[in-house]
Amino acid sequence: MISKNKIKFIRSLEQKKFRKENGVFLAEGNKLVSDLSNFFKCRILVATQQWMDTNKDIIADEKIYVEKDELSRASLLKTPQDVLAVFEIPSYTLSMDCPKNELCLALDDVQDPGNLGTIIRIADWFGIKNIYCSHGTADAFSPKTVQATMGALARVKLHYCNIKELISSLNDVPVFGTFLDGDNIYNNTLSSNGLIVMGNEGNGISKEVSELINRRILIPNYPQGNETTDSLNVAVATAIVCSEFRRRQL
Amino acid sequence: MISKNKIKFIRSLEQKKFRKENGVFLAEGNKLVSDLSNFFKCRILVATQQWMDTNKDIIADEKIYVEKDELSRASLLKTPQDVLAVFEIPSYTLSMDCPKNELCLALDDVQDPGNLGTIIRIADWFGIKNIYCSHGTADAFSPKTVQATMGALARVKLHYCNIKELISSLNDVPVFGTFLDGDNIYNNTLSSNGLIVMGNEGNGISKEVSELINRRILIPNYPQGNETTDSLNVAVATAIVCSEFRRRQL
């Protein structure tokens, strides 16, 4: 049985304001909740008796047993599953130094929560552990992003900061960005450290950040010069770029 | 001024049944409508006076001038733009031979309309002109897919057919598919013709189609063997595979 107030609280987590105020985020679904529970502190676990029975080892401050239709009322999904959970948002220490030693991503106002979630999942696949996000980038802990990450959120750290200041602080570190007049990525010298900057869905990388990028690259279309789609989706471009970086290292 | 009946008709095109019955689909937005109008016959064009004035050369059976708030009532988008259009669904002749001479994609029950749209856009970028879709794949002319293609729908042909029969008819043509136990794509011999099969979001490539795939490939994660996301989103995987095929040909 779940109270009306609890349902209201859970549903309020769709809004950043309430997530921030309470330092928590919402995750839904059997696999996602069970994956995240290994990494994040669970405040509230709402699930059917059957789910609780088969996932006894999950620790939560509060466990609420519900019928499926009760769960639907708390859920933000169109087709709710058997469980939802409220987790604590982790606090990371912001390190500006990571790009000196490893490959990192920087997102310059990526606005779509689904794109952000997909990018976090791509980062996880390609062993990128740190993503720097401009303050205009979507919130990594919004329900849509959390769902799209498919659990990758547990292994990738997101740092919201000023990208321009970040790059300015990195002396002699390669900073890559994709541009339509960049150099063919396939023939370019890539590195195993540095920063890959990806831009906004509509406007690409902002002017002030562009000026600080010292390695301008391009994903060539095929055949080159053919009339085609104007650009690739930002998550798709991120995937291709990361794949090409890691291919060189394998 | 737009009639209630016309609004009802336009909004009905969200459903496949009505698209099929009328042989038309809906597209919205300034750039998309103007791009598609070069390739598809426009039945109904609904736009503001200002948009019509700056896009005089677009030919349509019927042009309806509206105020922005009227357009909102016909629109399926959250934030409607200045124009929407009803286009005829093109009819292609189904050729089973294309994979013998060029690189083609086959989608085995890709269900999400957004993923399908993104895949069409990727195909366009990488010069893949034909996509074979199983009957369980999302409809390429659903509004969500059309919007996600960003105009690529004009240059890529989609053929709905039985993928198993298609592959069976292709003698000695390389048929690629991604599998978790496949061979590292980066070290594999790829070809400039053949079929790349991509599977369903949850279940991957179906068993009966898997059995016909003669080139099993894998997109390796990094570092290899690391704990990571279980899989990549199907559109993301399509992008990485297509990029790697085309890289070899540049």
List the defining traits of the structure above.
Alpha/beta knot; alpha/beta; 10 strands; homodimer; 60s Ribosomal Protein L30, Chain: A; 6-stranded parallel beta sheet; 250 residues
Number of domains of chain A: 2
Estimated structural class of chain A:
alpha/beta
Most strands sheet of chain A: 6 strands, parallel
Write the CATH homologous superfamily of the largest domain in chain A: SPOUT methyltransferase, trefoil knot domain
Helix tally of chain A equals: 11
Kindly report the oligomeric state of this protein: homodimer
- How would you write the strand order of the largest sheet of chain A? 7-6-5-9-8-10
- Share of β-strand residues of chain A: 15-25%
Mean pLDDT of chain A: 95
Rounded to the nearest angstrom, the distance between the terminal CA atoms of chain A is 52 Å
* CATH architecture type of the largest domain in chain A: 3-Layer(aba) Sandwich
- Series of H and E elements of chain A: HHEHEHEHEHEHEHEHEEHEH
Given this structure, which CATH class of the largest domain in chain A is correct? Alpha Beta
Description:
The structure is a homodimer of 250-residue chains. The first copy, chain A, has helices at residues 4-12, 16-22, 30-36, 49-54, 68-74, 98-101, 113-125, 143-149, 163-169, 207-210, 234-249; strands at 24-28, 42-47, 62-65, 83-88, 103-107, 130-133, 157-160, 175-184, 194-198, 215-218. By secondary structure, chain A is of the alpha/beta class. In chain A, α7 (113-125) runs parallel beside α8 and α7 (113-125) packs parallel to α11. In chain A, the strands form two sheets. Chain A has a six-stranded parallel beta sheet. Chain A has a four-stranded mixed beta sheet with strand order 1-4-2-3. The model of chain A has no long low-confidence stretch (mean pLDDT 95). Chain A folds into two domains: 4-88, Ribosomal protein L30/S12 (60s Ribosomal Protein L30, Chain: A, 2-Layer Sandwich); 98-249, SPOUT methyltransferase, trefoil knot domain (Alpha/beta knot, 3-Layer(aba) Sandwich). Chain A starts with a helix and ends with a helix. The radius of gyration of chain A is 20 Å and the shape is elongated. The interface between A and B is large, with 37 and 37 residues.
